[in-house]
Design brief:
RNaseH_sf; 2 domains; Nucleotidyltransferase, domain 5; EC 3.1.-.-; 259 residues
């Protein structure tokens, strides 16, 4: 995974020759079924790359933020990655800060812990006729495409979905990703950065701990953060780097947002 991270960091800064890309990718994907020489396989797993002549380009490096599709995702689960499973996925896809589509599905499961049902309002009876996890994941992967994966505490949602996809034989996620907590810390002045705190600060009204509702709330946080970016951040990879390394509280004043 470290070699994959290094490869993506290189691509986020410059194009690579196809042969250099393949050489560096040799230890990046741990799967006998994955052909690192086949650019389409990288694309199928969400990495937005393109081969032209003998060069490999990461499209998020040249895409402007307004041109980029972002998919804001939230999941509900019956437990941790080792003991639970996804029971609901919700997602909102936006371009130029405008919603272009959404995705929502419950997932068949049994024996939902009482604490999870109390938190989410999702009970065993709600999931009896829900589609199986493999079908929902397959549909979600198609929906996600090569959009940038955005979530509040992104590593949880991204890694849980990626691990679930791998366990079903679909391969890991390779989409570029952004954490709205990290981005908000650099663009919105707040005492706390949990989703509920930011909803209260920004006047976002939604049901908490349901996947699509929380995805839409995180989407509003994301759009607010985009309004606060410095003029120098124009392309998607610049946004990703800004979310990870810019000084915190870039703006002292949060712009008003009408919901």
């Amino acid at each position: 995974m470290k070699s994959l991270e290094n490869l993506l960091n290189l691509l986020s800064n410059r194009n690579l020759s196809y042969y250099d890309f393949v050489a560096r990718a040799k230890n990046s994907i741990i799967s006998d079924k994955f052909d690192i020489k086949d650019v389409s396989m990288w694309q199928m797993q969400g990495l937005s790359i393109e081969r032209f002549a003998d060069k490999i380009e990461l499209k998020t490096r040249t895409n402007s933020i307004n041109e980029q599709e972002f998919c804001i995702v939230d999941i509900e689960t019956s437990g941790g990655m080792s003991s639970g499973q996804i029971i609901e996925i919700g997602a909102v896809k936006i371009k130029n800060a405008v919603e272009i589509s959404h995705f929502q599905s419950l997932v068949h499961a049994t024996n939902i812990p009482e604490s999870i049902s109390e938190l989410t309002g999702i009970y065993d009876s709600d999931l009896v006729d829900a589609p199986p996890l493999a079908k929902v994941l397959e549909n979600f992967r198609v929906y996600l495409g090569d959009a940038v994966f955005v979530a509040h505490n992104v590593n949880f949602d991204y890694n849980f979905i990626s691990h679930s996809l791998e366990s079903m034989g679909f391969g890991m996620l390779l989409n570029r990703k952004i954490c709205t907590i990290e981005l908000a810390r650099r663009t919105i002045k707040s005492e706390r950065y949990g989703l509920e705190s930011l909803k209260n600060l920004l006047g976002i009204n939604s049901t908490h701990h349901r996947a699509l509702s929380d995805a839409r709330a995180a989407c509003e946080v994301f759009k607010t953060s985009l309004m606060c970016l410095p003029n120098s951040v124009k392309h998607t990879e610049e946004l990703i780097k800004f979310s990870k390394s810019a000084p915190k509280h870039y703006k002292d004043k949060t712009p008003s947002l009408e919901i």
